[in-house]
Request: fold
Amino acid sequence: MTVTTTRLTQAAAVATAVAGTIFVLVQINHPPTVLASATTTDWFVRNAAKTVMAVLALVGFTGIYLRQRAKVGVLGLAGYLLLGMGYFMLFGTEFVATIVVPTAAPSAPGYIGDVIAAAFGGKPVGDIGPFMTVFALTAVGYAGGGLLFGIATFRAGILSKSAAALLAVGNVATLSLAVLPSSFNRPMAVPTGIALIGLGVSLWRDQARQQTAAVTTTAAMPQPAAAVR
Reply:
């Protein structure tokens, strides 16, 4: 199989759509984000899925940015870098939640409980080191990057405008979780997941249109006289 720009972009489209699907599915019947959940199989499976989701989303955002880089300008680049930072930090925290938290919870329940509380907007009782900074940077990248990248994608007009707008609004809306009850945590993540699915499907269709246009153009080109027998 020849690796072409089209195939790489299609792979990014699939990665984006799968990331969005995972992000929606893991919200369904999510266990309480408390210490007691940290050692369960459900916790491990969901956080492992979120870790994969973060990697796939990074691949997808890269493909989306490269497809529209000529039209999104500095705003799109800033949004891509900021959003990429947010998802990279998200990957790190989800990896820790998957591997470290279940292992350390039995021996350091106070510390792990504080980390879990801080991750979801609560106030830790003790010192959790740099985790507060990590969570803050993740929030800035996720919300701010989503806003800028969504606006840039909307303005570029290459991919679905409704999905781009939903990404911008959905990501920024998560900042309201700081004052909303914890029951809003899961529903507030769904719009972003749907936006990712929409952007992935739109990117795939865009590549299909480009391929069709290329074939049509080639077929319409006049053949050299020597080729006509």
Notes: The chain is about 75% helix and 0% strand. The mean pLDDT is 91. The helical segments are 5-25, 41-104, 109-119, 131-156, 161-173, 185-220. Residues 5-227 form one domain.
